[in-house]
Design brief:
The protein has helices at 13-24, 42-49, 65-77, 95-100, 121-127, 163-186; strands spanning 2-8, 29-36, 54-56, 83-86, 105-109, 132-139, 149-156, 190-193, 196-199, 206-208. By secondary structure, it is α/β, with parallel strands linked by helices. The chain has 2 domains: 1-101, Formyl transferase, N-terminal domain (Rossmann fold), CATH 3.40.50.170; 107-218, 3-Layer(aba) Sandwich (Rossmann fold). The protein binds 5-O-phosphono-beta-D-ribofuranosylamine.
């Protein structure tokens, strides 16, 4: 049984999708704790509702990033995790923290990396005139929103989209690809070679959602 700790900062919909998929698909794994850096994150109640233990490590209580990351690691390590999942965890992590979980920490980012690392991805994709947007699950390296890409999903940008409508469309596919990536990881179905991730059974490491609906004729 692989032990999974999920880190959140907000509503926790990706965390919820992960817990459900883990149970429904009977992964050889268990989400043993959900850790939030925000005491009022909506995802905490969601986790409690699913009977997953929760922990808060409030970053505002720490004087430095290093001190916060050390306390966070101590809280995580109590659960002896095999895998740490960042699921809408909105903190930049120190190199020491990243190194500690190297090879066993994944993140989901709401863009088609390497485009748009960082914040406000949907607004930036719209401003750039992108016709596709999407999300990426990747291994965590010390460079923000970099690291080996496990799976990506693309969705169309539609006329009239704003950051909220596009973000909602992307979030739907996040809920599909993050569980898929984690399932591969816990079953040992991924190989990383020079930063390139291969799914060992040849399963598609991409998802394109609703890409063929034609533009409305004028
Ligand atoms: C997701 O879009 C995630 O990719 C981003 O923040 C959002 C978190 O959503 N980093 P949730 O908390 O999982 O609902």
């Amino acid at each position: 049984m692989k032990r999974i700790v999920v880190l959140i900062s907000g509503q926790g919909s990706n965390m919820e999708a992960l817990v459900h998929a883990c149970r429904r698909e009977r992964w050889p794994a268990q989400v043993v704790a959900v850790v939030s850096n925000r005491p009022h994150a909506g995802g905490l109640a969601l986790a409690e509702g699913m009977k997953v233990p929760t922990v808060v490590v409030d970053h505002q209580q720490f004087a430095s990033r290093e001190a916060f990351d050390m306390a966070l690691a101590a809280a995580i390590d109590k659960y002896l995790p095999d895998l740490v999942l960042l699921a809408g965890f909105m903190r930049v992590l120190t190199p020491a923290f990243v190194q500690r979980y190297e090879g066993r920490m994944l993140n989901i980012h709401p863009s088609l990396l390497p485009a748009f690392p960082g914040l406000h991805t949907h607004r930036r994709a719209l401003e750039a005139g992108c016709k596709f947007a999407g999300a990426t699950v990747h291994g965590v390296s010390s460079e923000l929103d970099h690291g080996p890409i496990v799976i990506q999903a693309a969705v169309p940008v539609r006329p009239g989209d704003d950051a909220a409508t596009l973000g909602a469309r992307v979030l739907e596919v996040e809920h599909l690809i993050y569980p898929r990536a984690v399932q591969w990881w816990v079953r040992g179905r991924l190989r990383v070679d020079h930063g390139v991730v291969t799914q060992l059974d040849g399963e598609a490491q991409w998802l394109v959602r609703d890409s063929v609906r034609p533009a409305t004729p004028t």
